[in-house]
C-alpha cells in the first residue's frame, strides 16, 4: 500500500539528523515548555525545531544558509499548522543575527559541514541566556561500516578543517576543558 501523500511529505523529505526520541530527552531534560524559545543554528528543513514545537509547544527559530531547505521547511510548518510557533530564516550560520542572551535552548544538530565544534559552541553561547542550554549533535560514522569509504570521508573532512575523528568521551573532555558543563552525553546508534 502506497503511503498517504501527506505522510510522505511529512516523513520522506524532512528527516532531522537526530531522532525524535533524543529530541524528546533533550526537551524533558531542559524542561521545555510553551514559554521557552528554541534556536536551531543549522536547521536544514526545520525537522528538529518542528518536532520540539509539536512535542512541547515551545516557540522556535531555525537558521540555514540554503534557501531551498528553508522554503521546504516553511511549507512543512504551514502543513503542520505551527507557523504561530516557528519561523525559519535563510542566513549564514557563522554569524547569528540575534541579540545576546536571547534563547533558552540552542541546537546544533548534524551541521551540514564539518566545523570546529567548540568555535560554533562559542557563537551559540552568546545567544543563549545565562542558565540556558546548548544541545550539540556531531557527525559520526562507524569506521567498520562497509558502506562508508573512510578514506574519502576523512579527505572530505580535511577539506573543511584539519581534524581527526574523536569518540564521544574525548569530545566531552574537550568541552569540559573549554569551560562547558556537560549535562549528558549520548551516542545514538544508527
What does it look like?
- The chain has 190 residues and is of the alpha/beta class.
- The protein has one domain (5-139): 3-Layer(aba) Sandwich (Rossmann fold), CATH 3.40.50.
- It has seven helices and five strands, in the order ααβαβαββαβαα.
- A five-stranded parallel β-sheet has the order 3-2-1-4-5, with helices on both faces.
- The two termini are 26 Å apart.
Please outline what is shown here.
The chain has 190 residues and is an alpha/beta fold. The chain has one domain (5-139): Vaccinia Virus protein VP39 (Rossmann fold, 3-Layer(aba) Sandwich), CATH 3.40.50. The chain is built from seven helices and five strands.
| Strand numbers in spatial order across the main sheet | 3-2-1-4-5
Oligomer: single chain
The CATH class is identified as Alpha Beta
Overall geometry comes to globular
Percentage of β-strand residues:
15-25%
Global Rg: 17 Å
Residue runs with pLDDT of under 50 for 5 or more positions:
1-15
